[in-house]
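Job type: complex structure
Entries:
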Amino acid sequence: MLRRLLLAAVAVSIVVGSLVAQEAPPRLVSPQELLAGLPADGSRWVTFGGSYTNQRHSPLTQITPENVGRLAPQWVFQTDTPGRFETTPLLRDNVLYVTGPLNMAWAIDARSGREIWRYRRELPATGSLTACCGLVNKGFGVLGDRLFMTTLDAHLLALDMKTGAIVWDATLEDYTKGYASTIAPLVVKDKVIVGVAGGEYGIRGFIDAYDAKTGKQAWRFYTIPGPGEPGHDTWAGDSWKTGGASVWVTGAYDPELNLLYYGIGNPGPDYHSESRKGDNLYSDSIVALDADTGKLRWHYQFTPHDLHDWDATEVPVLADLTIGGQPRKVVMLANRNGFFYTLDRTDGKLLVAKPFVVTTWAKEVGADGRPVVLPGNVPDEKGSLTCPDVTGATNFWPPSYDPAQRLFFVNAREVCATYYAWRQEYVPGERFTGGAGQRARGPDYRAYGALRALDPATGERRWEFEYISPSTSGLLSTASGLIFSGDAEGNFLAIDARSGKFLWRFQMGSALHGTSAITYMLDGRQQVLVPAGTTLTAWALSDVPRVPATR
Amino acid sequence: MKWMLSTVALVVLGVGYVTAQDLFVRLPADPPAKNPLEGNADAITAGMGAYRQRCADCHGVDARGIRSPDITQVWAKGRTDRALFGIVRNGIPGTEMPAHPAPRTSDTDIWRILAYVKTLAASAPDAPPPGDAGSGENLFARNCLGCHRVGDRGGQLGPDLTRIGAARARAALGRQIRGQVADFRPGYEPVTLTTPQGHQIRGVKKNEDMFSVQIMDSTERIQGYLREDMRTVTAEKQSAMPAFGSERLTDAELDDLLAYLTSLQGATSPAEAGNR
């Protein structure tokens, strides 16, 4: 007995000894950790886009174009609930933090795929929720020992990272009036930045900041200016009150300029011109806001007086480039309206605007920054044919950017649509679109998709990889020259980032929809984590020796 | 209280699971017996746009049916507004008529569409259409049964026609048999695979992705193939359904055939019966 006890004591002291010897990450996630983005050692993924730039480009190089064909599944996690992942998982200290459909969320052991805790919000009757396009969520934000998640009934929650227990619960808006929230919060310094969905329900959109400690609102920026504010006169009559301009895709942040960059959603009603004459600011714009006060520094409107539901809620990506011999801090955005844009992010000056798909509504973007609109593209009761379609040239699925190659990667769609419009009365909480779009069909309208590599200094296409149908997958690229993507038929794909050549595939059984794979290091092996349908699957090179945990 | 909540949640999840596309189903309240928007000019205008966007692909801009029944006579045939509302809301299980759940489609959206379709309503025809169904059945057995199934007889390379009389307008069927319309129905597109040895496998495409194709071949064998194992995989331009011009089928024979086809009403599904 004594002998056994002694042995146990020795064993414990060895374990404790190794715990002390190994350096554990700080218990709390600091603002500095968020600022650092994706570390070279691959030990974490703690913001929506990997870093504040939203580049989704990992420095990891263990998995390469040469060995990607040897990827093997490590485990599969099932949500056991209907609905699909649109989330970007976070990883810290070997634990994954993942949001799912119906505001479920999990902490998952990254080594085994086993659940550590699960959270589920008691939502109002699902019929009363108004999320236009699925009861989804795009991911957590994190700071200190708290996770932040938006909800379908338009709340923002803080959860305890260790237990999933609610720390605080802030109400963004009244969900019965058409508000919902699916966006992944962006944590900047001591604030949690979120936006609201509801562009199809006649809401008045906004971006909010909340104190991460208390859940108290720090500031609000209305995406539709109120009476007396600049831009209010871009909405005829009372149309501003129900003008939409929702915010449902996470923005970027430049710590040096202390500016947030967010893409703003479509004006409402979506399709009916007469219902809201004017440019309808700041719908379909990118706004640059002071991160401390929420004050508008500059804006650029991609699609003035949009009639095709072309939200600018694509992921803005930051980079430093040389354009025309001049170094520029830029923000890049591949827009639903068919154009790829590069703007100077210090002042919003337009540097590049070039179509990256077939675009029939505008000839070009003029020197004044406004699109040169072509006739025959105003939707009416009879319908008018325009390219791109409603879903757009791309959409909320994240692009990636390779700073070494200076290439912007995006999953593009080549689809046209007939757009219809009619006058519709606003009823609070009901859909308010004033029309609809229908994908053009038949032999003259081949609908397909392509992964395209664009030069952000010119908008020129470097290469493409074509899909048989439009993909809605986000992207992840790596410093070893890989792009991970997906097609609409459920294939998870590895593509050569230098040539666009196909390298490897696996049929996941469900498409990556609106979400990207993430990558990180675990016990000496680079992992690729793929959210697809109701599953998360971890992949690694099984022939790379594992270095077991010692702490 | 807690168990009640979880029961409610389970019920909600259950409903969501049934309609996998749209999880958030508004639990149905009884719709009014009569369309509250009938004759309302604004509703009719809005309904026209919505109809053209969401219904006209199958039912035709004139509502007389392309890949679906003529719906101008539904009132003449005795359907009520409430029953039609139910069909639009819930779809007809086992057919191509999809459900249109809330909140994507509101009650108002459906009433608007019905208000518009009502403006196209026609009275029931006075005289029955020409043709002898008995002769038509013989023609069908000789020319069509090899590929099409009715009840438990016939081939399966083409669509099952057991309820085609309920699913298609007579005129649309006539145009299709004559080969006057392009036919690209998913699941029946002709495809030819050529093996490395030069052997050809012909069939209709059931599914595909970048790396594989799933077919029913001309012997009705279902099988999937990897594209990398084939020399070529070619989508054929010509429909698998041959055109029957007047040299193969006289106008009178076509009438007989149509009389037979329109008599094929299938088994009325319980859901449809409930909506009457």
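Summary: The longest strand of chain B covers residues 200-208. Confidence is low (pLDDT under 50) at residues 1-28, 268-276 of chain B.
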